[in-house]
Design goal:
With about 190 residues, the protein is an alpha+beta fold. The chain has five helices and eight strands. The chain folds into two domains: about 130 residues, no CATH class; about 40 residues, no CATH class. The chain is elongated and about 85 Å long. Bound molecules: zinc ion (ZN) (2 copies). This is DUF177 domain-containing protein.
Length: about 190
């Protein structure tokens, strides 16, 4: 499950089309417990892997739905989350002579969007969880033009206006009413 068996990648590539619950991916399960975010759909995963020697090119597409809270007005809403990604998986050296060497390789791999694998399969769970996490908005908004809450009385300004709002900003054209224009003689 969510592993690419390297031996099974044939000339035409290897396909994965699977649905998993977010709770089945450790990183996402932890997120669901901590933050105000809930996965309302299983995660749909499509992956194509092609092989050149020991190097595996992976193209994927992940999709799910989450329930979260607007960062401005605090209203819960549903959001579609989708991400496309491509990574290259290379075989990690089975035995590295020095530990410092190994961590250098891992660092370089991190920077280049390269996944290291060992053994005869590639574990995709962490990559997929990270793709979902990166696709989540940092400041979720129920809609682009969300007006948020009144910072004085807490009213949701998408649904109602409040007294303090009119006092605070007023009508920007109101000031024109008090202008007497010289051309206008009555
Ligand atoms: Zn909002
Ligand atoms: Zn108010």
């Amino acid at each position: 499950m969510l592993r690419i068996p390297i031996g099974s990648i044939c000339e035409n590539g290897w396909l994965l089309n699977e649905q998993v619950e977010a709770a089945g991916l450790p990183l996402l399960a932890a997120l669901g417990r901590k933050e105000e975010i809930r996965f309302v759909q299983p995660i749909q995963i499509r992956v194509v892997a092609t092989r050149t020697g020991e190097t595996i090119a992976i193209k994927g597409d992940v999709h799910t739905g989450v329930h979260l809270r607007c960062s401005r007005c605090l209203t819960p809403f549903d959001l579609d989350v989708r991400s496309e990604f491509s990574v290259t998986a290379v075989a990690a050296l089975a035995e590295s002579p020095a530990d410092s060497h190994a961590s250098e390789t891992e660092l370089a791999a991190d920077e280049m969007d390269v996944l290291l694998y060992s053994g005869d399969s590639i574990d995709l769970r962490e990559e997929i969880a990270q793709q979902i996490i990166m696709a989540l908005p940092f400041n979720p908004l129920c809609k682009e033009a969300c007006k948020g809450l009144c910072n004085q009385c807490g009213a949701n300004l998408n649904r109602s206006t409040c007294q303090c709002k009119t006092v605070e900003t007023g009508n920007p054209f109101a000031v024109l009413k008090n202008l007497s224009l010289p051309e206008k003689k009555e």
